[in-house]
Each structure stands twice: as C-alpha cells, then as structure tokens.
Amino acid sequence: MYFVGVTGGIGSGKSTAAQRLAAHGCAVLDIDGVAREVVEPGEPALEELVARFGRDILLPDGALDRPRLAAIVFQDDDARRDLDRITHPRVAARVAERVQALVQDHSGPDPQLIVIDHPLLVETGQEVWFQAVVVVEADIESRVRRLVEGRGMPEEDARARLKVQSSDEERRAVATHIIDNNGDLASLHAQVDEVYADLLARAEAAAAG
Ligand code: ATP
Q1: Looking at ligand 1, which atom is closest to the CA of residue 150?
Q2: What is the rounded CA–CA span in Å between residue 28 and residue 99?
Q3: CB 20 within 8 A of CB 189
Q4: How many other C-beta atoms can be found within 10 angstroms of the C-beta atom of residue 131?
Q5: Whole domain around residue 20: which residue ranges?
Q6: Exposed, middle or buried, 46 (CB in 10 Å: 0-12/13-18/19+)?
Q7: Burial class (CB in 10 A: 0-12, 13-18, 19+), 105
Q8: What does the angle CA 158 – CA 192 – CA 202 come to, to the nearest 5 degrees?
Q9: CATH number at residue 120
Q10: Alpha-carbon dihedral of residues 80, 83, 84, 88, nearest 10 degrees?
Q11: Of 10, 23, 152, 194, which is most buried, counting CB atoms within 10 Å of its CB?
C-alpha cells in the first residue's frame, strides 16, 4: 500500500487530477464525498449539528442546508470549531473504514496506490499520513473562471472561498509533486501521467524495502 494525498485550492483541478490517477488504476477516495455522507439525514453528526445550530440549518426535506451552515460558520470562529468537532472525527473514522475495505478487496497489481483527494490536507496538518503529496496549482483567475463557468458559483463566493484557504506556498512546503494546472486539460493529464509513473516507481522502491 502506498498512500498519496492530492490537494490544492478550491477549483485548482485536484479532483480532475485524482480522476486521471483513477484511470491508471489507483483507488481514489474523495474526502469531500465522505464529508457529505456523514451529514446525511439519519446520521448522528446531522443530529448533533441540529442540536448545536437549530433546525434552521435543515431544508424542508430534512437534508442539511449546506449554504446556510456555511454562512453561519464563515462569520463565527466558535461555530466553525463546533462544526469541525462534530464532523471531523466522523469523517476520519469513515475514511479509515473505506481504506480498510479498499485494502481488503484489493485484487489488482501491487503495489496498491491509494489516492486521497483532500481539499484541506495541508490546513489540517495531515500530510504526515501520506508517503507522497501531490499539490495541484492554478492561478486565482483560472480558478475563479472555472468555478464560475464550470460550476455556476457566484464570482463573489468563489473569491471569498479562495481567500480563506492555505496559500500555494504553504502547500508547496509539503509537496512531493507539484502540478501546474494553468493550461488545458491535455496539459493536466500529461503532468498527472508523469506523476503517476514516478509514484509507481517510488511505491515499488518502498515495497522492495
Ligand atoms: P473543489 O475544491 O471545488 O472540489 P477541484 O480542485 O477538485 O475543486 P476540479 O473539480 O477538478 O477542481 O476542477 C474545477 C473545474 O474546472 C471543473 O469543472 C473541471 O472540469 C475544470 N477544470 C479543471 N482543470 C481544467 C483545465 N486544465 N482546463 C479546463 N477546465 C479545467
């Protein structure tokens, strides 16, 4: 098993890079997806969030109103800490379960590369868990454009989210590989392919001891 973290700022292209690694046969776990799962209706974390923030954070169908909760914690550090305290241990536990299942069910070639697509890998100091950290970078204007055009996010929201994240310099400090995603998709894919070849070589060297 060889653990690879893929991270980068919002809209940098990390999920696109992780998908390309999946196409090479890597097992990919998307932390954002797990974070969404642990607050689905019926999950204990959602009940705790309602106890802390009130029923106003729910949509009429009982699902979490994510923009509403985001607006609350954006303004209030205590609220953000409470959100993190309620959700982070559940996300960590579920990720551990998923990783265990991936390892148990593994039937492909060795070494098995497990890629974790983690937007806040650096912010949460989790680089220590990974043998390699791939940082995807793109300048602010490309990221804003992709989020607005590709995802329909209002420009103001995109800029506000970019502002509160770690800088590329902080990410670069823990990176083993850096991908420049200011070009087109073909350029991104070509770089990911090179990174994959290197990751495989590193994983093989690590497995050989
Ligand atoms: P988030 O943090 O919001 O999850 P992300 O870093 O995972 O974002 P992606 O979802 O991979 O970013 O990419 C954001 C958008 O930009 C997507 O619509 C994706 O298809 C597009 N995109 C990514 N890289 C490129 C590129 N090189 N050229 C054009 N579009 C791109």
Answers
A1: 18
A2: 10
A3: yes
A4: 16
A5: 2-208
A6: buried
A7: exposed
A8: 125
A9: 3.40.50.300
A10: -160
A11: 10
How far is ligand 1, taken at its centre, from the CA of residue 209, in Å?
36
Three-state SS for 178?
Answer: strand
Quote the tokens at residue 144: 């804003």
Query: And the tokens for 122?
Result: 């650096």
- pTM for this entry: 0.90
**For the chain, how many structural domains are there in total?**
1
DSSP letters of 86-117?
Answer: HHHHHHHHHHHHHHHHHHHH--SSSSPEEEEE
pLDDT in tens, the chain (209 residues): 999 999 998 889 999 999 999 999 999 999 999 999 999 999 999 999 999 999 999 999 999 999 899 889 988 999 999 999 999 999 999 999 999 999 999 888 888 999 999 998 998 888 999 999 999 999 989 999 998 998 888 899 888 888 777 678 889 999 999 999 999 999 999 999 999 999 999 999 998 88
The number of the ligand 1 atom at minimal distance from the alpha carbon of 17 is 11
